């Protein structure tokens, strides 16, 4: 018997939705009436609209991705058990590792960033912002990063279950109401660490890519703690000046495709797609993906 039943996990989605909605409502009340931070209701509604579109797109793309994962699992001679604790522990670490690189490259490769950038459009970090996710993961190929886990012999359903738990955990990181968590900082992904990830300050850009743990950020040099003397500012250089979910979901693709069509040659167009976000042909060399995407004086 599987220690984690992937099929049963699907039935917990409504319960998670209720808990997430309750947390969002509590956060709204606290920000409006206790901390007096204010609350951008229009942005929150836009995030929910993007989330609705993502549910539809995931339902459609999930059929194709599921079939591809199933084909890989049928071809690999390897098999790992779903009734052994050590197998689930290894799968958790494997998914963390693969997620780290998917997330990091989604910031460093324009083709991937066109999908992932949707998640970084909010200029206020609240629980609804967690649900503002791109609709085009199938096109950008974000799913490819998890093929190795299936090829190593874990059932596709098990991989999907661990990834789903990873993402559900991250929902509760999108808030400014929880401060630093002492010795957990730098080990677990915390609200403080994730605020850094969403911040556009130069010192914070392209940091803290882990899902549940930050061990790979420490190992590969991308960990950054939140500083008391550097308040986080959120948002993109070319802000999406719209609350229309369709505009939010496609804005970066429009910018990327325009840059590619103006590149002058297929080779240069491919270099733009594979290069740092925001880089243009004939532009002066950018010092890195971060500065190409966010200006140092970005105001939230």
Which secondary structure elements does this structure contain, and how are they paired or packed?
Layout: H1 6-10, H2 13-33, H3 41-75, H4 85-108, H5 110-116, H6 127-130, H7 137-140, H8 147-151, H9 156-171, H10 191-198, H11 215-220, H12 245-261, H13 266-274, H14 289-293
Write up this protein.
The protein starts with 5 loop residues before the first helix and ends in a 7-residue tail after the last helix. The chain has one domain (49-293). The longest helix has 35 residues, at 41-75. It has helices spanning 6-10, 13-33, 41-75, 85-108, 110-116, 127-130, 137-140, 147-151, 156-171, 191-198, 215-220, 245-261, 266-274, 289-293. By secondary structure, it is mostly helical. Helix 4 (85-108) crosses helix 5.
Summarize the structure in short.
The protein is 55% helix and 0% strand.
